[in-house]
Amino acid sequence: LFFLITMAFFRGEEGSVKFSSTGGSVAQVLSTTAWSLDTTKDTLDVTAHGKVAREFVGGLTSGSGTVDVLYTAATGETNNFTTDALATNDPADAKFELFLDDNSGSSDKKITFNGIVTGASFSSSVGDLSTVSVSFITSGAIDVSAI
């Protein structure tokens, strides 16, 4: 017997990002070239006294990452996204949507969360395109149910 198994792979050029700095409707961040999200889960030691091996349970989760964009003179959410790192007293109401498989940002394969933009790194090299790398942390639950 021969079984054919097909798997869907996603190329990096297919991802996109939507963002809202005010917690309202999200809009596409134009000229996104890359994004990353790293998630972590704390572990709690629940080993009973007298045990010979440690036991753990999962605890709180968190995440952080970056979004890289080409610098443009764009307005709207792309501009808000790159400058949100300068906002003070940020209530963590920014909405993020990271898309895995659709460069138009209309797919249902996405990761959603609220967060805070924590930094922006602007760079420009002679003869090359100017870029901005925006870093963020998550605040609250990270929804990966659509993946």
Describe the overall structure.
With 147 residues, the protein is mainly β. 5% of the residues lie in helices and 47% in strands. The protein is built from one helix and seven strands. Strands 2-1-5-6-7-4-3 form a seven-stranded antiparallel sheet, covered by helices on one side. A hairpin with a 7-residue loop joins strand 6 and strand 7. The radius of gyration is 19 Å and the shape is elongated. The mean pLDDT is 83.
Strands, count: 7
Main sheet: strands, sense, barrel? 7 strands, antiparallel
Order of helices and strands: EEEEHEEE
Q: What share of residues are in beta strands? A: over 45%
Helix count?
A: 1
Extract low-pLDDT stretches. none
Q: Per the principal axes of the C-alpha atoms, what is the gross shape?
A: elongated
User: Structural class per helix/strand content?
Assistant: mainly beta
Strand order of the largest sheet: 2-1-5-6-7-4-3
Ends: how far apart?
A: 32 Å
Question: What is the share of helical residues?
Answer: under 10%
Radius of gyration: 19 Å
Q: Provide the residue-averaged pLDDT.
A: 83
